[in-house]
Amino acid sequence: MATPRIFSLLSASSTAAALRSSGRFSRWGRGINRFSTAVATEEPITPPVQIDHTQLLINGRFVDGASGKTFPTFDPRTGGVIAHVAEGEAEDINRAVSAARKAFDEGPWPRMTAYERSCVLFRFADLLERHCSEIAALETWDSGKTYEQAANVEIPMVIRLFRYYAGWADKIHGLTIPIDGLYHVQTLHEPIGVAGQIIPWNFPLLMYGWKVGPALACGNTIVLKTAEQTPLSALYVSKLFYEAGLPPGVLNVVSGFGPTAGAALASHMDVDKLAFTGSTGTGKIVLGLAAKSNLKPVTLELGGKSPFIVCEDADVDKAVELSHFAVFFNQGQCCCAGSRTFVHESIYDEFLEKAKARALNRIVGDPFKKGVEQGPQIDSQQFNKILGYIKSGIEGGATLEAGGEKFGSKGYYIQPTVFSNVHDNMVIAKEEIFGPVQSILKFKDLDEVIQRANATHYGLAAGVFTQNLDTANTLTRALKVGTVWINCFDVFDAAIPFGGKKMSGYGREKGIYSLSNYLQVKAVVTPLKNPAWL
Question: Which of 271, 265, 250, 209 is nearest to 60 (CA)?
Answer without folding.
Answer: 250
